[in-house]
Design brief:
The chain is α+β, with helices and mostly antiparallel strands. The protein contains six helices and eleven strands. The two termini are 14 Å apart.
Length: 235
């Protein structure tokens, strides 16, 4: 079934004094919908700069006809070049999740821990890998080595094993998926994870602003920046 896609995005700085997330949404000439999100790291200046460099380079590459993998490498090079000779930007980087959706298929690429979700028939599925330490901590919980509270509050939970920092990338998640008629796709920064997965799954019909307000309503202390891009079929 060939149908068009529509998208919207938005963000909130949460409980932080600055915004380090960047995002973009474009419709390509052939009707493909392109979405890309980056969550910056490296302090206020560095994180904001890195996420913007990643988004701009990735967008330009895809719009020139580059593959997602090539666009990722160009984004990585942009961070390296942007930090060169600038001590205040040393160590900056960003996560990246980019997706192309057309007709009944989505293709994606990601580095880092920003989640890419598929919502369908009230179920939520994460499509991309989590390149933080969270999966290892959750495995310790499943083996009974730590408690649920210890897992949730583990100090290393959000430590990244990989990010777009201008260095050679060793962890890259790529994939594609056939989509059903009721599919909704969400690209998010990890700030969205303040909201329980069952709440996200139940909110398929909500706008991005409503989803953001649901995250903020949780009232998590020091709520991280949160960005959401939502893509669903045109009605």
């Amino acid at each position: 079934m060939a149908t068009g896609w529509q998208g919207e995005g938005g963000q909130d700085q949460g409980g932080r004094p600055y915004q380090e997330d960047s995002w973009a949404l474009r419709t390509l000439p052939d009707g493909t919908l392109l979405a890309v999100l980056a969550d910056g790291m490296g302090g206020h200046a560095g994180g904001a700069v890195a996420s913007k460099l990643v988004i701009d380079a990735f967008l330009k590459a895809v719009e020139r006809g580059r593959s997602l993998a090539e666009a990722l490498q160009e984004a990585n090079a942009a961070v390296r070049e942007g930090a060169a000779g600038k001590a205040e930007l040393n160590g900056m980087g960003a996560t990246l999740v980019g997706a192309l959706v057309k007709d009944d298929e989505v293709r994606w690429i990601s580095v880092g821990d920003s989640p890419f979700y598929l919502m369908t028939k009230g179920k939520l599925e994460r499509l991309n890998e989590d390149h933080s330490l969270a999966p290892q901590i959750d495995a310790m919980l499943e083996r009974g080595m730590i408690t649920a509270e210890e897992a949730a509050n583990h100090p290393g939970r959000h430590t990244l094993r990989e990010a777009v920092m201008g260095e050679p990338l060793t962890l890259i998640d790529e994939g594609k998926r056939e989509l059903g008629a009721s599919a909704t796709l969400l690209l998010c920064s990890d700030g969205v994870e303040s909201l329980a997965h069952d709440k996200i799954a139940a909110a398929a019909g909500q706008s991005v602003r409503q989803l953001l307000e649901m995250v903020l309503a949780v009232g998590k202390p020091h709520q991280d920046n949160v960005t959401i891009i939502k893509m669903d079929r045109q009605t």
